[in-house]
Amino acid sequence: MRSAESTVGESEGRIVVVAGLRVDAGTRQRQGGGLAEVTDCLWAKDCQSCGQPLADGNRAPALAVDDMGEFALASLHHDRCRRSGWNDSGHVSGAPSSMPTLSNASQMLVLSFPGRPGQWAMMVTNPALEAIPIRPAGDGWAVSLRPLTDVGLKAAELEIGAAAAVPGATAAAGAGSATVTMTVLPFDSYTAPAGAPELRLAREQGGLVWGVSYALHPANLTDAAMGAEMKSGRLIAGWVALGRD
């Protein structure tokens, strides 16, 4: 997990660099105290305007927000493709056919709990690296975990086993990979490479633990980061049963 501290760099007009992202004054004001959480949950992979890697730009990525009223989408772009700003016109620029696909990342691991016997297969997923939903909260905006909470994932004490399976998802243990598929809107599916230990546990136990967080990059997981996100409530999880073949 990246540092929660904001790094303010060279100012250019009303744009400043905050935690490695270019953010205009209007967005900083509207985001309020939630800006640090938003920047902590965005990962600079591909530009959400042109679809090319953000690393090929010579400036920090620009943070843009499309405000739909009850929720908004915060996304990353090359500064040359889209400047940082808060769009509350209700119109999202760009034809749908030209919008790039969001990147996601998942990783399988073997999970154990202190004081609880046994081990379980777990898939950790970041469902969207470069764009996240946010909702009004207090005097600003906060990262929203819906519709993932609609699946049945939660930050409360994790229950494991068939009787505790979340109702809105199903899992599959294939050859060298595991997949979790949402059976409610938006019906998204996530796949991670899986080794023999993880697949064996999933098959023996009839399911796996699915953990989701925008603040974790599954390719760079650490025990400390996992523990911090579990304590903060930003990692939600649930037991997902294997579907029938």
Q: Main β-sheet: number of strands, strand sense, barrel status?
A: 5 strands, mixed
**SSE run:** EEHHEEEEEEEHEEEHEHE
Helix content: 10-25%
What is the alpha-carbon Rg in Å? Answer: 19 Å
Principal-axes shape call: elongated
Number of strands: 14
Cα separation of the termini: 37 Å
User: For the residues shown, what is the average pLDDT?
Assistant: 84
Low-confidence stretches: 1-13
**Structural class label:** alpha+beta
Proportion in β-strands: 25-35%
Number of distinct helices: 5
Can you list the strand order of the major beta sheet?
5-3-4-8-9
Write a structural description.
- The chain is an alpha+beta fold and 245 residues long.
- Helix content is 15%, strand content 33%.
- The chain is built from 5 helices and 14 strands.
- It has helices spanning 25-31, 35-40, 148-151, 196-205, 223-232, and strands spanning 15-18, 21-24, 62-67, 72-77, 85-87, 105-113, 116-126, 131-137, 140-143, 169-173, 177-182, 189-193, 207-212, 236-241.
- The strands form 4 sheets. The protein has a 5-stranded mixed beta sheet with strand order 5-3-4-8-9. A 4-stranded mixed beta sheet has the order 6-7-13-14, covered by helices on one side. Strands 10-11-12 form a 3-stranded antiparallel beta sheet, with helices on one face.
- The chain starts with 14 loop residues before the first strand and ends with a strand.
- The relative contact order is 0.16.
Would you kindly provide a brief summary of this structure?
With 245 residues, this protein is of the alpha+beta class. 15% of the residues lie in helices and 33% in strands.
